[in-house]
């Protein structure tokens, strides 16, 4: 995969020292880390809102900052779109004028993304004549995304796009972000301190701590290399699995999803799949590792519908909790207490059943 962004920069802000080197490809990368550790600073440096003390930044092959060459392209000339936490729309302009704001800075020849196309992708056509204050939080976020897209950017930067909205709207914003990425193939850097939100979008994660890159890679690799184990119980981890719609039972509302994993067919029941999802469609679902129980045998006469058989591949001990990686045809992370691990004599190589309710399976993306 070609790197779209090459980044190396230092910045001193009082006691806070920022020093990062990283490169990003054309997919979605989640920037994850605790509050105050430099996630926003990274985006601000890439966008030109802040100037590094030293370093080099290139976007899409174009050098936008090079301390040695005294080059520092002003933010408005960098080919990127920035979506802030709270949207930051111009209150005195209509939605339509807000959308056109970014586009207007571009010569016509460089406008690769069309206004009507963006309006229909983000479903904001009915809002065009309104003022931002007359729009809901989720609508304002979509307008901000539209404004960023209409700059025909080579890169989209999203700083906590979910934090100012409630849970239901978060889901919607996630869906629009995936839609934008699929349609326009613009690389995205998405900052969040909520790991599940990031994982619903991507498994490519840059972990930031103390102004530095703590780790960078695929989510499961980071977990298995112990770089991303929860520091406290209930924090963070999530299974995100791609499956296909196999059957929808209209009477019970239960959807059966399947995945062809090697020679095995794995079935997962879920009751959150929206009506009208066509058979055969690919869906991404999430299951929290803490919602999964381990049993040594299948359990008959129980309401729990999902009982996936698999083999324990790894046991990772952290803070009295155990994260167990079970291969059920796909890798499944399961959180168990260390006392249960002892009681069941769980070991690598054992055959087990992973039990979880259909209600624990949440759909996070329908392709
Ligand atoms: N304008 C500023 N002047 C001086 N220091 C600042 C300024 N803005 C932020 N900082 C400091 O820089 C550090 C990194 O801040 P940054 O906003 O990048 O963190 P973050 O990881 O994005 O946090 P959050 O998740 O809370 O947004 C913090 O210690 C913060 O106090």
Describe the structure.
This protein is an alpha+beta fold. It folds into two domains: 5-225, P-loop containing nucleotide triphosphate hydrolases (Rossmann fold, 3-Layer(aba) Sandwich); 239-366, OB fold (Dihydrolipoamide Acetyltransferase, E2P), CATH 2.40.50.100. The strands form four sheets. It has a six-stranded mixed beta sheet with strand order 7-8-9-3-10-11, sandwiched between helices. Strands 2-1-4-5-6 form a five-stranded antiparallel beta sheet, with helices on one face. A five-stranded antiparallel beta sheet has the order 14-13-12-15-21. Helix 4 runs parallel beside helix 5. Helix 5 (167-184) links the parallel strand 8 (155-159) and strand 9. It contains eight helices and 21 strands. Adenosine-5'-triphosphate (ATP) is lined by residues 13-14, 16, 33, 35-41, 193. This is Molybdenum import ATP-binding protein ModC. Residues 1-235 form the ABC transporter domain. Keywords: ATP-binding, Cell inner membrane, Cell membrane, Membrane, Molybdenum, Nucleotide-binding, Transport. GO terms for molecular function: ABC-type transporter activity; ATP binding; ATP hydrolysis activity; molybdate ion transmembrane transporter activity.
Number of helices: 8
Give Rg in angstroms. Answer: 23 Å
- Which ligands, by name, code or SMILES, are bound? adenosine-5'-triphosphate
Output the CATH homologous superfamily of the largest domain: P-loop containing nucleotide triphosphate hydrolases
CATH third-tier fold name of the largest domain: Rossmann fold
Biggest sheet architecture:
6 strands, mixed
Nearest-integer average pLDDT: 86
- Count of strand segments: 21
Q: What is the H/E string?
A: EEEHEEEEHHHEHEHEEHEEEEEEEEHEE
- How many domains comprise the coordinates? 2
Helix content: 10-25%
Shape: globular
Going by CATH, the architecture of the largest domain would be: 3-Layer(aba) Sandwich
């Amino acid at each position: 995969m070609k790197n779209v962004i090459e980044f190396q920069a230092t910045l001193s802000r009082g006691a806070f020292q920022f020093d990062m080197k990283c490169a990003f490809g054309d997919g979605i990368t989640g920037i994850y880390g605790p509050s105050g550790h430099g996630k926003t600073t990274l985006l601000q440096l890439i966008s030109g809102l802040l100037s590094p003390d030293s370093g080099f930044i290139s976007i899409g092959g174009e050098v936008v900052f090079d301390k040695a060459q005294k080059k520092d392209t002003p933010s408005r000339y960098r080919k990127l779109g920035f979506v802030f936490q709270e949207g930051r729309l111009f209150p005195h302009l209509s939605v339509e004028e807000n959308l056109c704001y970014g586009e207007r800075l571009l010569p016509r020849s460089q406008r690769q993304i069309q206004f009507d196309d963006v309006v229909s992708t983000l479903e904001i056509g009915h809002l065009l004549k309104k003022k931002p204050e007359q729009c809901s939080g989720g609508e304002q976020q979509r307008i901000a995304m539209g404004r960023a897209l209409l700059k025909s950017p080579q890169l989209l930067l999203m700083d906590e796009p979910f934090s100012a909205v409630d849970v239901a709207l978060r889901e919607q914003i996630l869906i629009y972000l995936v839609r934008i990425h699929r349609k326009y193939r613009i690389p995205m850097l998405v900052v969040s301190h909520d790991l599940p939100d990031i994982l619903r979008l991507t498994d490519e994660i840059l972990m930031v701590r103390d102004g530095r890159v703590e780790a960078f890679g695929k989510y499961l690799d980071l977990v298995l290399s112990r770089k991303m184990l929860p520091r406290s119980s209930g924090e963070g981890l999530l299974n995100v699995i791609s499956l296909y719609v196999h059957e929808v039972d209209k009477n019970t509302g239960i959807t059966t999803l399947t995945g062809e994993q090697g020679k095995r067919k794995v079935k997962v029941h879920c009751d959150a799949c929206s009506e009208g999802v066509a058979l055969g469609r690919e869906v991404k679902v999430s299951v929290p590792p803490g919602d999964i129980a381990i049993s040594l045998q299948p359990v008959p006469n129980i309401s729990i519908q999902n009982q996936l058989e698999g083999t324990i591949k790894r046991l990772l001990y952290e803070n009295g909790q155990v994260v167990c990686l079970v291969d059920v045809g796909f890798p499944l992370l399961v959180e168990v207490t260390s006392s249960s691990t002892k009681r069941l004599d769980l070991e690598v190589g054992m055959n087990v059943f992973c039990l979880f309710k259909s209600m624990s399976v949440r759909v996070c993306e329908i392709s």
